[in-house]
Design goal:
The protein is mainly beta and 139 residues long. Helices cover 5% and strands 37% of the residues. The chain contains one helix and ten strands; from the N terminus they run E-E-E-H-E-E-E-E-E-E-E. The longest helix is centred in the N-terminal third of the chain and has 7 residues. The termini are far apart.
Length: 139
Amino acid sequence: MHIDGACHCGRIRFEAEVDPAQVSVCHCTDCQTLSGTAFRVSVPAGRAHFRLLSGEPKRYVKIAESGNRRVQGFCAECGTPIYATNEGEAEVYNLRVGAIRQRAELPPVLQIWHRSAQTWVDGLGAVTSLEKQAVPKQA
């Protein structure tokens, strides 16, 4: 599937070919911290199938539980996460689904690091939903 995406401010734009059957949710505590939320959704794209169209992501290297050095690519201007990959010659870019324009067509098929999942994640379907942010009442 051909996808394209951008950071929030538009400075970084990219395109890729991905397999929708490879979309996953990661519940590891690093993804929780780095995303600022309870989990992160990603889809892999091989190096030959990922192309930056504009901008250059800022890179932050974290040490994974495995000991691997993982590069986190994000927009230095707006902070949007774009990808994660191994340090050195990247073979696979794990693209952050939130930055992909076709994200509605990329539902997750797998959850990883579920042992770290927040206990309330599985119950979100029962939480009251609003179609958009409620407007505060004026006093």
